[in-house]
């Protein structure tokens, strides 16, 4: 099981693995935001406020990771950050 870190809770202090994901919030022309999770193709969500988007993104990531483990338990994706000048 993986835990997504969020403000006020640090699973690594409890010895639990933490994965951090970048999300992109794209303003919707009808209001609110569309959210894409970088590194997890097909993991998307939406919300009316930034706070709601981040909450929904956390839930979407958790469900997506659970689905990956159920569908392909032998695969453990590796995530990295690349910096470009």
TrEMBL record:
Residues 22-76 form the HicB-like antitoxin of toxin-antitoxin system domain. It comes from the Bacteria. It holds the Pfam family HicB_lk_antitox. InterPro entries: HicB-like (IPR031807), TA_system_antitoxin (IPR051404), TTHA1013/TTHA0281-like (IPR035069). This is Type II toxin-antitoxin system HicB family antitoxin.
């Amino acid at each position: 099981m993986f835990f997504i870190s969020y403000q006020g809770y640090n699973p690594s202090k409890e010895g639990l693995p933490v994965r951090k994901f970048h999300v992109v919030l794209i303003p919707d022309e009808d209001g609110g935001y569309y959210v894409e999770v970088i590194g997890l193709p097909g993991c998307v969500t939406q919300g009316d406020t930034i706070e709601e988007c981040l909450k929904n993104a956390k839930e979407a990531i958790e469900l997506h990771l659970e689905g990956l483990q159920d569908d392909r338990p032998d695969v453990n994706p590796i995530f990295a950050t690349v910096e470009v000048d």
